[in-house]
Structure of Gluconate transporter:
Amino acid sequence: MVLLVILLAVLALIALISWGKVNAFLAFLLITLPVGFALGLTSTQVLEAVQKGLGDTLGSVALVVVLGAMLGKLVAESGAAQQIATTMINAFGTNNIQWTLMVTGFIIGIPLFYNVGFLLIMPLIFSLVYRFKLPAVYIGLPMLASLSVLHGFLPPHPAPTALVVQFHADMGHTFFYGLLIAIPAIILAGPLYTRTLKGIVSKPLASLVAEPLPDSALPGKLNSFLSSLLPVLVLVVVLGLQAVLPPKDPLAPTLAFLADPGMVMLLSVLVATFSLGTALGKTLPEVMENYAAAVRDVAPILLIIGGAGALKEVLLASGASQEIAAGLRGTGLPPLVLGWLIAGIIRVCLGSATVAGLTAAGVMLPTMAHSPADPNLMVLAIGAGSLLFSHFNDGGFWLFKEYFNLSVHDTLRSWSAMETIVSVVGLLGVLLLDWALPLMGANLGPH
């Protein structure tokens, strides 16, 4: 019954948004309410779930999204993105730009949370698209594949870190095995798969890309790179200090505060206001107008993400995720495959990779005491499953669709297919390591 209700809800979303041309936020609300009633919630519980879903989802992403959009807008308007794009093209050439962006996304994605990384690299991708007349999806998707894989597979990202703790896995081994799996997953889902997507016509939001400036008006290369990548640099320094300092060090609370994505972005915006704004001759009101325009650009996206969060919360409040997971537990599948499958189905039903991973972990934990499965590989199997087929109920789907200004069909063909390839390759990599590690004495990787 639960699966039927969720299936009908997804089909109704598709019908309203794709064929009915209903605003996506309104469509989510129109679907969420009857789904809640169909799953047995009272009217009060439905309203509470909708409000909680909206609040929790926007509370966790609004600050990062808005500040990231502000930074991205200033990076674009100041000419910093143009300077970075020109430097990269001159260094590596347009023929290798996919691989250049993929590697850049991989480096950025290790310390950077997904939403921050996404908003940070959008102006860079769009500047390359407009300046060198390159296909947006073709060059942008490999970079986003890097960010997505690292978000789902590797600590210090929230879900993998929590899974390492829950399964008593080894952080070093999990990270090392995750890297071995992540590299082929990114290559297959990024540069190789996107060869089939060159025909997709995408006109990204032009408001995020400034008109090309003469070279004499561009900020310096060092200023451009440092100001644009300041969130990455701050996180690298903070995480490095957290790794070497004892947990009870007097600096620990300050470092934890600075490691928060919202605080990282706020600090970066404040620095960029000077380095890419007033220091280049802009007045403070001019910089603030850029920021106001950035907020207007992302407001519709925030509403859509909030709508997806409302639907997710109704499904959680009704117990749908637990019922789905319990129904799968008695299948007799190998533990690693079962962990991947449970996370994947919950991901498809609820949209959130983090919720899918943590829910699947709760189901699999009782079985681990009687299972020969490597806990490090279980973390990665669940992480891979949590990325399966992003679609209408996932905020990441709408971020990609709206920023690249794609149709639903092309978003499914590009973004959703990329996420699915990453998930399946991740599972295959886990199973290959599960076969190979006993042959090597399980001594591969750091201790």
The radius of gyration is 22 Å. The mean pLDDT is 84.
